[in-house]
Amino acid sequence: MAQETIASRAASSGGSARVSVVPEVAVRLVGGLLAVAIAAVHIADQGGIMSLGSPAWMGWGFRLIEAGGVLTALALLVPRPAWLGWAASLLLGVGPFAGYVASRTVGVPGDPGDVGNWGYWVGTVSLVVEAALVVLSVGMLLALRQHVKASSAARR
Length: 156
Known about the structure:
The protein has 156 residues and is mainly α. 74% of the residues lie in helices and 0% in strands.
């Protein structure tokens, strides 16, 4: 769908510039890999699959992110409905990103020791991967929205 939108925009603008179209399955695969990477980073940060971080509520939150990463990757690889997988990936990227920023700025209950600890490399990797997933998700959701608008206008 997204590649159709890109190609139609290039054709409608009369652009002679060469437009590179990436197959949707490749974009979904990249999104799925980013979702699995978020899960992997949180498993590494927690100390493995069998470990539960402290405080317990944060450890269970990590487990939720880890399971959400795998489920989001699966949702992205299933071809329909596309918006559901991208919406899930947007939430998967925004949630942990906001939690990390909160834990480093104002602190979170039961974990005051991380305030100001911006140099933690696993956290930095997590922020980069989450930001990449958010950017990709927003781009795909906007492309899907544009495609739906164009489809409904063509039917009229």
